[in-house]
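pinging the channel bc i need a second pair of eyes. not urgent but kinda urgent?? the chain im working w is below, pasted from the shared doc
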Amino acid sequence: MSAPPKSRGTSFVPGSVWWIDVSSTDPARSRDFYAELFGWSYQIDPGPGRGHYTTALLNGRPVAGLAGVPALARRPVAWTLYLASANIEYTGEVVTQWGGRVLAGPVDVPGRGRMLIGMDPTGAVIGFCQPRSPGTLHTTGPGSLSWAELNTWDGPRADKFFATVFGYRQQQIGDGIEVDYTIWSRGGRTMLCRLQMNQDWAAPDIGAHWLLYFAVDPRTGTDAAVDQVLALGGRVDFDPYDSELGRIARVADPFGAAFALVDPTQRLEPATDLAAGSARVDDPYDD
């Protein structure tokens, strides 16, 4: 198997990752946290109505957005994933018809396109965007998005829902019983991954959510990056562990937005005596 070619930007394919952003009750401190961790610089949108929305840059290329939320707001602080839509109104209708909900929008967002926030039938919040310009999200190298994974208690229902919305094909790479892990693809291109949570490792009160994985610099490594997260005021949810995807840790920023770190250069060799989809699982982003 070979790794897929890296793209300098996001090409428009409905259902592909189009944008990511993180909310914060203290945007300035969040900017400092991610700048120290990933080397991001920033461009703040001065436009009215944008609430000083910030675009994070890595080597001058957009890699994420940062948005402020009031400290007393009911909206959770979290990373949000946005998928490309060819027709945002139609996407919203399909989401509702197949058991999901539209939480906000559609609305026009200057510089991005027409966007909405929804929730799938298993409870995970997801964004959709009908862009008005070519994609700009860069996913190449350390400090940028490596892949996105839906963690849910009802894997089959999530598979069916997103297959309906975007025509994804699913491939089970776990055993489907003890480990239920699928990859979602369209037109031969891997889009996303889905992991069914179980009580062996996930607390019952954890709701369905998307987990975004960011590549770390191999010269730093996952363990040192985790130490840096702690030094910068974040927390560690899962200590670093080895897998066929690389060395992974799950962490959160100082305001509770969870994400994962991965050093993809530190991969375990495939092991035929272990169930696929376990900590030692084939890389879902290999072809």
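so The radius of gyration is 18 Å. and Residues 25 and 71 are 5 Å apart (CA to CA). — does that match what u expected or am i reading it wrong
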